[in-house]
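sry for the spam today, last one i promise. struct tokens for design, 275 residues
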């Protein structure tokens, strides 16, 4: 075993020791630290986008700690261990790469991708079968019919989940053949949002804006753009320009809340030239 991995696991075990451990760590369970796991994953992404390698190393360590933390809790409950987690992902990688760890030969990238999707689909069917068996053992009869959209986590960021759902549907032919119908759908959804707003129906407005956002994700997908990344970049760009607007206003001894829209727009145009 890697000595540093062993050391990290021992540290977590010590932190969870019921007699000498840390009071905060002892209070935690899967659910309470789940939010930190998500936060650490996003901080890894942030370090990558900033191209800060030292910070990336640090954030990857924080993310690894989350894996060790969850595994320690599971081990205490007799559910699984860190070694089980490592074994599961190792076997998955071997299974998904028969061309690297076996005798399979792919003649094109398309064949490789098709194999990858077929293997993942089989894994989802196996997981669904296990869940069905488990529900039957518990005396609960649930009709788990296989679906192309099985296995998509419900807690993914909304744009990312919409993208995944659309891609899964597209794999079985449920998709427009090109971008033209997407434009038509986009304009249709905008009109429906406008109509809902004019009618002043709050529930309808939310529903129609949801449809509009879903269609925007579809447009991004047809343009080979990741909508989550695009929105994150747009937010970062707006934030940078807005900070510049604030700085320009301060330099002119003004405050934004005392300026009219014409003056604010002038600052915005100036900020765009500087950022």
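last one done:
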């Amino acid at each position: 075993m890697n000595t540093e991995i062993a050391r990290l696991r021992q540290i977590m075990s010590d932190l969870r020791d019921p007699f000498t451990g840390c009071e905060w760590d002892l209070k935690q369970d899967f659910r309470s630290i789940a939010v930190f796991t998500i936060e650490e994953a996003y901080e890894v992404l942030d370090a990558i986008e900033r191209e800060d390698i030292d910070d990336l190393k640090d954030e990857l360590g924080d993310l690894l700690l989350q894996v060790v933390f969850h595994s320690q809790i599971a081990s205490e409950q007799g559910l699984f261990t860190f070694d089980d987690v490592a074994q599961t992902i190792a076997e998955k990688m071997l299974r998904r790469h028969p061309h690297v760890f076996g005798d399979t030969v792919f003649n094109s990238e398309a064949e490789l991708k098709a194999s990858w999707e077929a293997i993942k689909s089989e894994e989802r069917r196996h997981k669904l079968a296990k869940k069905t068996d488990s529900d039957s053992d518990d005396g609960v009869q649930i009709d788990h019919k296989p679906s192309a959209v099985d296995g998509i986590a419900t807690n993914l960021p909304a744009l990312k989940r919409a993208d995944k759902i659309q891609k899964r549907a597209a794999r079985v032919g449920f998709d427009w053949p090109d971008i033209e119908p997407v434009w038509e759908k986009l304009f249709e959804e905008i009109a429906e949002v406008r109509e809902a707003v004019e009618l002043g129906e709050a529930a309808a407005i939310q529903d129609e804006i949801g449809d509009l956002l879903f269609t925007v994700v579809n447009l991004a997908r047809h343009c080979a753009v990741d909508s989550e990344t695009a929105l994150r970049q747009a937010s970062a760009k707006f934030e940078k320009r807005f900070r510049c607007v604030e700085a320009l206003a301060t330099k002119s001894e003004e405050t934004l809340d005392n300026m009219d829209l014409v003056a604010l727009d002038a600052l915005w145009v100036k900020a765009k030239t500087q950022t």
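The mean pLDDT is 92. ok im logging off now
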